Amino acid sequence: MGGTGREGASPDGTNRDIERQQVRAQEMELIREAQAGSRAAFDSLVRQYEHQVLRLALHLTGSEHDAEDIYQEAFLKAFRYIGNFRFECSFYTWIYRIVTNLCLDQLRRKKTRREDHAVVVDHSGDEIDILASVSDNRSFSNPARELDRKLLGQKIQAALVKLTPRERMVFELKHYQGLRLRTIGEMLHTTEETAKNTLFRATKKLRAQLSDLR
């Protein structure tokens, strides 16, 4: 009976594990082919991740124009350095690391020039997600909800641009992209504990900035 119980409890999980392993194996093969000079293999990798890369760049920069530039630059850089890929992480983590570094550079340049863009384009729905991360209770139930959300979004973005580039990066990777702190640490060439401390500082600063909204 014990053997039957195990067989009945695990097929779905086993199938998912097998499927993940197959996908991983196929990705690794595409990377090897790309390293050997296959443009078709690299294009297949691009197609797998292009939407995630563009979405990440848009979240982190708040600008469609900057996001498109970073999207292009990230894949050009990936193509140029695909030979350096050592199979120690997934291609997903590797390309996200390239994107986050490009976004960090872009945010630092903007901070130096004091170009603070307070409104993220095309992400009205995400404003509530940030607020949920920095405030315990805030809800809208009146007819002016949409106007309130727009004003709220502007205040949130104004608060975000006051974070350091790294604080903003960690916060948005965690709460926009849903990445684990260990993965974020790997992307930013730091430890999980450092990423956790950075997230704590970012959240604390945002709560202080948005305290009047509670």
Task: Give a concise summary.
The chain is mainly α.
Keywords:
single chain; 10 helices; 214 residues; Rna Polymerase Sigma Factor, Chain: A; globular; 73% helix; disordered N terminus; 2 domains; mainly alpha; Arc Repressor Mutant, subunit A
Overview of the structural elements:
This protein is mainly alpha-helical and 214 residues long. It folds into two domains: 10-114, Orthogonal Bundle (Rna Polymerase Sigma Factor, Chain: A), CATH 1.10.1740; 116-214, Arc Repressor Mutant, subunit A, CATH 1.10.10.10. Helix content is 73%, strand content 0%. The protein is built from ten helices and no strands.
Cα Rg: 20 Å
How far apart are the first and last residues' alpha carbons, in Å?
56 Å
- Share of helix among residues? over 70%
**What fold name goes in the CATH topology slot of the largest domain?**
Rna Polymerase Sigma Factor, Chain: A
User: Approximately how much beta-strand content do the residues carry?
Assistant: under 5%
How many domains, as an integer?
2
CATH level 1 class label of the largest domain: Mainly Alpha
Would you tell me the overall average pLDDT? 76
Under the CATH scheme, the architecture of the largest domain is Orthogonal Bundle
Per DSSP, the total helix count is 10
Low-confidence stretches: 1-9, 113-132, 134-143
Count of individual beta strands: 0
For the sheet with most strands, the description reads: none
Dominant shape: globular
Return the structural class: mainly alpha
Could you state the order of secondary-structure elements as H and E? Answer: HHHHHHHHHH
What is the fourth-level CATH superfamily of the largest domain? RNA polymerase sigma factor, region 2, helix turn helix motif
